[in-house]
Automatic annotation (TrEMBL):
This is NitT/TauT family transport system permease protein. Belongs to the binding-protein-dependent transport system permease family. It comes from Paenalcaligenes hominis. Residues 44-222 form the ABC transmembrane type-1 domain. SUPFAM superfamilies: MetI-like. It is a multi-pass membrane protein. The keyword Metal-binding does not apply. The keyword Lipoprotein does not apply. It is found in: Cell membrane.
Amino acid sequence: MIVLLFWEWAVHHFNWSALILPAPSRVAQALYNGLMSGYFWPHLRQTTLEVVSGLFLGGGLGFVLGVLLGQSRFWQAVLMPYVLTSQVVPKLALAPLLTLWLGFGFLPMVVITALVCFFPVLENTLTGLQQTDSARLELFRMLGATRWQTLWRLKLRLGLPYTLSGLRVAAVLALVGAIVGEFIGANQGLGALIIAAQGSMDTTLMFAVLILITGLGLGLYYCTLALQRIVLRFYSPHSTGVYSHDC
């Protein structure tokens, strides 16, 4: 609050142009007008849909591949170099190609977002599966558990906090991926709205959209945090006991 008050005072005291730095009151007014008039809602809905779709797609693929690689050291050694190589390529560089191949609109934005989300979930899932200690694995072998039962009742439960931590990181990166993609190949969405505001030199609108992006990012993060608490409450090593004899 002190920063905002100082910002408001400085803009009026030094008579700065709104083109350079608009006053917080003007930004708040632009944000209010855009929300009340419905101008922001289609763009906010588009970006949210892209982020959620990309998060489900990229996070799901990352989780599945992480589990598969965690079950096979051979395939982990074979495929991980290719996975790492794919992550070195900047996603911003892929955006024009994806737009060229898939066209403008929803699909290329989802693909870019999924590519950004994929690796954090994969890496954390793989790390979580590798945290299972040998004593617990030996106990499950003594109890006659199959490989599937060991995975489901032991490894995934113990690795679940790691996977959910990767999902939290992926949720934040998903928004970055969607916005960056919209900068290049979209005519709707918060990223496209920033480009439009830049083209019309409407700095006040740019600040208002940045506030929306920040709010959306915080909302996504806290949603994944709430999801983590719920899942760990009902599906964790302590909820049912990984040493159960009915494994």
